[in-house]
Amino acid sequence: MVTNPMPPFPAGFLWGVSTSAHQIEGAAEEREPSVWDVFTAEPGRVRDGSTAAVACDHYHRHREDVALMAGLGVNAYRFSVSWPRVNAPGGLDFYDRLVDDLCAAGIRPVPTLFHWDLPARLDWLERDTAARFAEYVSVVAARLGDRTQHWITLNEPAEHTLLGHALGVHAPGKRLLFDALPAAHHQLLAHGLAVQALRAAGAVSVGIANSHGPTWPASGEPADVEAAELYDVLLNRMFAEPVLLGTYPRLVGDLLSDGKRDVGADLGVIAEPVDFYGVNYYAPTRVGAPQDTGTVFGGVPLPAGLPFSLRRIEGRPVTDSGWPVVPEGLTELLTGFRDRYGDRLPPVVITENGCSCEGLDDQDRITYLDAHLRALHRAIEAGVEVRGYFVWSLLDNFEWAEGYARRFGLVHVDHATLTRTPKASYAWFRQVLREQRSREGAGIRPHDEGAG
Ligand code: GBH
């Protein structure tokens, strides 16, 4: 049981939940195929052999899901727009209805324009995909822009590059190791072009959602410190610095500019100013010098010959996904970013934070979220400007290569009947939001507390 009251967060704070299209919508027949539809059709790609053809059937049940959010008392909802659905006839109508329903419930829509479900005929290794993305973004912005204040261009290009293009455990299943870097560059270019397209459409507030975490060396030995610094470049700096500073860390710049590619002009586009910086935080990473024994990333064995190895963080509880629970890593990450980037760092929004655990009485999730909110508050006290916090996730959903075997929701979904049942964590978060609302300056709309 959590007893201490949560300290008050700043006025105007965005309190929300996050989802993504491919993980919840279903209605696969009403979209073009995405790389994930192709990938999950191949045997052995997803742990439980499942696909997201139905997922949570949110496409047909979005009213019920908006009602669940209204009952929870959030003032914002981060969802993603599926590019392959927008390409299908009537696809944008769905998001138009969703945005209307959210506005009617007093919940601000915060769409992410790309959350890993690339149309199957496209490829991030092709530079042209960035231009195609900007065209698609213009179409979405023209339709939803009158009711949408906050936009997110991309979700976690780091993970999409690493898992999808370097290691091949996510769609599109490419195993290119360091040759995957152009996929990252083209996503970042797509981000910059999308910011321009959104501005042209009159967007007020634009950001990106990047995956970040502190990288801790396995020891003070120079070889471990060097390996941790390299990992910091690959996970954090190579995605933050082009956006915030208009530069790549030297190693990445060298690998990308291999004689045939001049990234200089692109960096000018990638550094198009953003209004907020979205951070998805789950855990830090312990990194050491290369080892002979295999190294594992998020349960995935990594190939031999990498210039680092990933180690266990000892002495911590782990979530069902096997990730260590390290709330103070969030404080460290944000104060570290503030120290590193100074006033080049715009206000931060935590665009994802959460954990997998089983059961309706999900006390481990409550403990995780409570501790991370307090860690976030400590970053605010230390002077980091933070404007919002979104729990991953509203619903148990299709957890990519883990299928339906991992549950991240505040709301349980029975994947046989699609019945939604709020968990203990839903009631806990509703109470946190109530208390925040009741404090002066918490900046949350008065809300009917009836539902849910
Ligand atoms: C996010 O990715 C995605 O945006 C979202 O779609 C997804 O459902 C959600 O998180 C939950 O997975 O083994 O301790 O080194 C998160 C990316 C990559 C973060 C693996 C944690 C491993 C931690 N994650 N990483 S550890």
UniProtKB/TrEMBL annotation:
- Describe the family membership recorded for this protein in Swiss-Prot or TrEMBL: Belongs to the glycosyl hydrolase 1 family.
- Per UniProt, the enzyme's principal EC class comes to hydrolase
For whether the record's keyword set contains Cell cycle, the answer is no
Q: Print the keywords alphabetically.
A: Carbohydrate metabolism, Cellulose degradation, Glycosidase, Hydrolase, Polysaccharide degradation
Q: Write the Enzyme Commission number(s) for this entry.
A: 3.2.1.21
Q: Which reaction does it catalyse?
A: Hydrolysis of terminal, non-reducing beta-D-glucosyl residues with release of beta-D-glucose
Q: Which Pfam families match?
A: Glyco_hydro_1 (PF00232)
Asked if the Swiss-Prot or TrEMBL record annotates the protein with the keyword Lyase, the reply is no
Protein's name according to its UniProt entry: Beta-glucosidase
Instruction: Report which superkingdom the organism of origin falls in.
Output: Bacteria
